[in-house]
Specification:
This protein has 319 residues and is α/β, with parallel strands linked by helices. Helices cover 40% and strands 14% of the residues. The chain has two domains: 218 residues, HUPs (Rossmann fold, 3-Layer(aba) Sandwich), CATH 3.40.50.620; 85 residues, no CATH class.
Length: 319
């Protein structure tokens, strides 16, 4: 019954969108391409998995996967690489969303990687984002995944702009931008060699604005922290970090309460909020349309302070 209800909701929202013009037509093209990629990769691989952070992009990716494969179940599990420093609202949203769908959730834990001695503990108030690479690669090996769907977009970062829709990784999970396969006219070749796997990015051609417009059209639920709310924050390195168990004020820092929202979600120690009064999707669309800085460039400390931070991590096996 749940699958039938979701399929009915999707059909209804699609019908509403079809009565509009302008950006909706653009979104329908993006949607059909993403659904094609999901189906094509699922057909060519033996053990795919959908990476899900609970953020807006992965929420859209999951919604597209439902459109691609409902009324049946998804032909792959959903996996979250959990740093252990995630926002509570995001973890709550993740668990409720997957539970409602009745799909299988795998949680690959960075804390477990630390406990097993696979990665060093960076200590309190320090980002665990880079540690996700080892946890992800270990989970891929443990479950023998040969394809991983991710919600990355080319407009987020220069390194991601270089990457193909199908990003092949060697036996060590590493990415070599000079050995990518051509993808002329949206023709994809998804075959992997023994030991290799592929990362597939159905949202590659989407922008942040496209994502929010699609969320509006499809009425996709998101964690509350994407909308303006009052929150205690500290200003650090030009960013507003939410005060929590893993972010505490350092000497000289003052805790203040601000009206903020988050443009992206990740490790709480390096994901900043933005001052905003946008409480609806329409207001956020207006805000994003006027922005000239990507969400990662504006609010992710691990990307802001190095020209090659993302590319270096992707070469190591990052998303």
């Amino acid at each position: 019954m749940e699958a039938e209800s979701i399929a009915a909701e999707d059909a209804s929202s699609g019908a509403r969108g079809a009565t509009r013009t302008g950006w909706v037509d653009h979104l329908r093209l993006l949607e059909s391409h993403a659904v094609f990629i999901l189906r094509e990769v699922a057909a060519e691989s033996e053990r795919p998995v959908l990476l899900f952070s609970g953020g807006k992009d992965s929420a859209v990716l999951l919604h597209l996967a439902l459109k691609a494969f409902r009324p049946g179940g998804l032909p792959f599990p959903i996996m979250h690489v959990d740093t252990g420093h995630n926002f509570a609202e995001v973890i709550k949203f993740r668990d409720e969303r997957v539970s409602r769908l009745g799909e299988r959730l795998i949680v690959a834990s960075v804390q477990e990687s630390i406990d097993r001695g696979r990665v060093p503990d960076p200590g309190p108030n320090v980002s665990r984002n880079r540690l996700q690479t080892t946890t992800l690669l270990d989970a891929i090996a443990e479950h023998s995944f040969d394809a991983c769907f991710g919600g990355a977009r080319r407009d987020e970062d220069k390194a991601r702009a270089k990457e193909r829709v199908l990003s092949f990784r060697d036996t060590f999970g590493q990415w070599d931008p000079k050995r990518q396969r051509p993808e002329l006219w949206h023709l994809y070749q998804g075959r992997v060699q023994p030991g290799e796997h592929v990362r597939a990015f159905p949202l590659s051609d989407w922008t942040e604005l496209d994502i929010w417009q699609y969320i509006a059209r499809e009425a996709i639920a998101l964690p509350d922290i994407y909308y303006a709310h009052r929150r205690q924050v500290v200003e650090r390195d030009g960013m507003l970090l939410a005060v929590c168990e893993w972010v505490t004020p350092e000497p000289g820092e003052d805790v203040v309460e601000e009206t903020v929202r988050f443009r992206t979600v990740g490790d709480a120690t390096c994901t900043g909020a933005v001052r905003s009064a946008a409480q609806t999707v329409t207001e956020i669309i207006e805000e994003v349309a006027a922005s000239r800085v990507s969400e990662r460039g504006a609010t992710r400390a691990d990307d802001r302070f190095s020209e090659t931070a993302m590319e270096d991590r992707k070469r190591e096996g990052y998303f």
